[in-house]
Every structure is written in structure tokens, then in C-alpha cells.
UniProtKB/TrEMBL annotation:
This is Potassium channel tetramerisation-type BTB domain-containing protein. Pfam families: BTB_2. Residues 3-74 form the Potassium channel tetramerisation-type BTB domain. GO terms for biological process: protein homooligomerization. The lineage of its organism: Eukaryota, Fungi, Dikarya, Ascomycota, Pezizomycotina. It comes from Aspergillus carbonarius (strain ITEM 5010). InterPro entries: SKP1/BTB/POZ_sf, T1-type_BTB.
């Protein structure tokens, strides 16, 4: 698939072979690793991390290597920025009160959020009824004397959670 390697490995270039039969290729070893992986298996490179996003500088450098080595399909894939279709990030928010578990492909950022909880107060001051109106019986209802339920307001810390789920599309 590479015009460079097709020419290099053709019979015209035998004189350029090293004594052991190998060839010297002047290339950045980090970038060449991705070129070689693509040539061997047809796997397009994906330089993405959830915290930093795509590494556009690395894509640009690899594009120049693809041009140099004459790898047309990889060059087109990089020029058209098709790697942007290989990653989908879904974001949503929620407020939670308790601990939670998350799948491994999901990242969360947690922020404290102050709020107010209204806690039911028994009209007879019975502490075990606090926060639980159903615990009050006839005597409590009589003590309320037909009035409104009473509530205390208590400050509470809730967690505002920003979820990020990253999905990779391996067909790109």
C-alpha cells in the first residue's frame, strides 16, 4: 500500500540494502510504530484520552509521515479527520445523595452542592417520629389539632455529578 516501500523493496533498490539484508529507514520511531501497525494490520491510529481529547499534533505529524511514505488511504483518513468519528462522548449530570458505582468506560467529576432538606417534626416532639410522618398515631394527629404538618429545614450536602461516557467505534 505504500509507494515508498514498494519502490524500496523492488529489485531496483537492492544496492541500498544493508549487509545483513535490512534497510535503513530514516523515520521518527514513535511515528513509525503507527505506520508499521497500519501497514501490517490496517489498523487506523487513534490518539485519544478522556481527559485531553484527541492529540491533534500527533495526527498532524503522522499525516506528514503518511505523505512521505506514500500511504494514500491513511493519508486520506487523516486529512479528512475521520478519527473524530471514532470516539463518541456522551455527557449528562445528576445530583446524588449516596455513593454510587460506575462502569469502567465512564468518568465522573463530582462537585458539592448545598441544599435544604425538610424534615418532618412530630407535634408531640417524639424523636423517633422525626422525619417519618407515618410513625405518628392518633395522639400525634390530635396534638396537631388539624393544623399543617411542621418541618425543620436542615442544610445538607449533595453531590452534583458530571458523567462522561466514552464509546469507541472500532469500524473507523
Amino acid at each position: 500500500e505504500s509507494t515508498f516501500f514498494t519502490s524500496l523493496l523492488s529489485s531496483r533498490w537492492i544496492s541500498n540494502a544493508l549487509p545483513d539484508g535490512g534497510y535503513f529507514i530514516d523515520a521518527d520511531p514513535i511515528l513509525f510504530e503507527h505506520i508499521l501497525r497500519y501497514l501490517r494490520r490496517g489498523i487506523y491510529p487513534l490518539f485519544y484520552s478522556p481527559d485531553k481529547g484527541h492529540d491533534y499534533a500527533l495526527y498532524a505529524a503522522l499525516l506528514e509521515e503518511a505523505r512521505y511514505f506514500g500511504i494514500c488511504r491513511l493519508q486520506t483518513w487523516l486529512e479528512e479527520k475521520r478519527y473524530r468519528n471514532a470516539v463518541e462522548v456522551r455527557t449528562w449530570t445528576e445530583t446524588i445523595d449516596d455513593g454510587d458505582t460506575r462502569p469502567v468506560n465512564e468518568w465522573v467529576e463530582v462537585y458539592p452542592k448545598w441544599g435544604i432538606n425538610k424534615i418532618y417534626v412530630c407535634p408531640r416532639g417524639i424523636t423517633v417520629h422525626r422525619g417519618w410522618p407515618a410513625a405518628c398515631g392518633r395522639q400525634c394527629h390530635n396534638a396537631r389539632d388539624g393544623g399543617e404538618y411542621q418541618y425543620d429545614e436542615e442544610p445538607v450536602v449533595k453531590l452534583f455529578v458530571v458523567h462522561k461516557e466514552v464509546r469507541f467505534n472500532g469500524d473507523m
